Amino acid sequence: MSQSVTVNLQAQGRRLRIEADGHHRDYVPLWLRERSPDDATRDPYTGQRLVEAAELPLDLMIETADVADGQLKLGFSDGHLTTFTLAELLNEQASDSPRQLWDAAEAPHSKADFATALEDDSALLSMLDALHRNGFVVVSGVPANNDGMQPLIDRIGPLRRTNWGGIADVKSVANAYDLTMTQRGLEPHTDNPYRDPIPGYIWLHCLANAAEGGDSTLADGFMAARLLRQRDPNAYACLTRVTPSFRYCDADTYLESEGPLIELDSRGDPARVRYSNRTENIPALPAEELEAYYAARKAFYELITGEELTLHLKLDPGQMLIIDNYRLLHGRSAFQLAGGVRHMRQGYVDRDSTASRRRVLQQRLATPQAQGEPA
Q1: Beta strand 262-264 with 186-189: parallel, antiparallel or unpaired?
Q2: What is the pTM of this model?
Q3: For residue 73, what are the β-bridge partners?
Q4: 7-63 tens-digit pLDDT
Q5: What CA–CA distance (Å, rounded) separates 104 from 43?
Q6: Do 228 and 188 belong together in one domain?
Q7: Pair 64, 204 in one domain
Q8: Is omega for the bond preceding 374 within 30 degrees of 0, making it cis?
Q9: Who's near 214: CB < 8 A, 6+ residues apart?
Q10: CA-CA distance, 75 to 54, in Å (whole number)?
Q11: Contacts of 153 (CB under 8 A, 6+ apart)
Q12: Which intervals hold domain Gamma-butyrobetaine hydroxylase-like N-terminal (predicted)?
């Protein structure tokens, strides 16, 4: 390591302080002991823990701590010895690749090429990094057939199947089972908040878009949450606290789930937004709580529908829009079929498989592959 690092024991070995480049972090012995990277603690092949962490002594102490050549050697009061790589230890709490929140004026140009991402791991990683960072990516050159996006899904997937099947049509039909299958405009929304789990990513492939209207809209829900917290803290608090339910029913399906419009993670930051006017059901809360919720929801709605945050785009045939369904709200303008056909195909890919593929590619491309190792 290039940075200057010192360690010292405090509180009779109940704390280990690591100082690096003017900053310090304190560690608890049990936290270090259960994360010991040695083969006695973790299986060398799977990386999974071999010791039962709950059986480690609560009064565990660190008896020795030495740093040399970027390594931290520790001796614990239970007799265990282990060695950490300091760089990995100090990066333990580092967040994943940062997200970049945006408004309409600063909206990113998030683009990828289908054939290149299909064949080249670096291009696929670039696409997935952009998707994670910006919440969406527009992919060009998708084959103009019903399942044209399937090969790229297979590089990441699997495809999430629902009651509507796998890759499904999004076009106007008679006796539509959902408002997406009509010509009406759709307000900004997130998809399927009535499912558990909610699909992580929406893949929307354009086969034809000659109808008058039908432009897509996107709004960054995390940016909307940030602005709401700044401008109306009480409304923000209300939308993180009150939990509506969401329901979808037809002749063969009854789906229901619940969650706040702004869901926070363990650090208190937005982890997911929900908005679905068509399927939301707010319970009969006390009158004051309902009034506060309705005012807060209106304030959020005005943000996600306002031009400050709304990105307008119209997909061309052969283009595909991949959307982070936990973060972005999407909608469309109404369209008239007299001007031509509007035919989209849509599928879902879950969040865990997408994140896994991105992280595996990050690790693989950061390390030179062995000659002949398959990608």
Answers
A1: unpaired
A2: 0.87
A3: 66, 83
A4: 999 999 999 999 988 889 999 999 999 999 999 999 999 999 999 999 999 999 999
A5: 49
A6: yes
A7: no
A8: no
A9: 314, 332, 333, 334, 335, 342
A10: 19
A11: 159, 203, 347, 349
A12: 8-85
User: Which residues fall within 8 angstroms of residue 125, CB to CB, at 6 or more apart?
Assistant: 358, 361, 362, 365
Residue 372 has pLDDT above 60, yes or no: no
- Residues 118, 201, single domain; the answer is yes
Cα separations (Å) of 135 from 138, 218, 329? 11, 10, 10
CA atoms within 13 A on the CB side of 235: 19
Instruction: Write out the two tokens for 227.
Output: 């602005």
The rounded distance, in Å, linking the Cα atoms of 274 and 260 is 7
Residue type, 196: D
Specify the amino acid at residue 288.
E
Cβ neighbours, 10 Å, residue 268: 8
Identity of the amino acid at 46: T
Rounded Cα distance between 79 and 60, Å, is: 10
Domain boundary among 55, 90, 125: 90
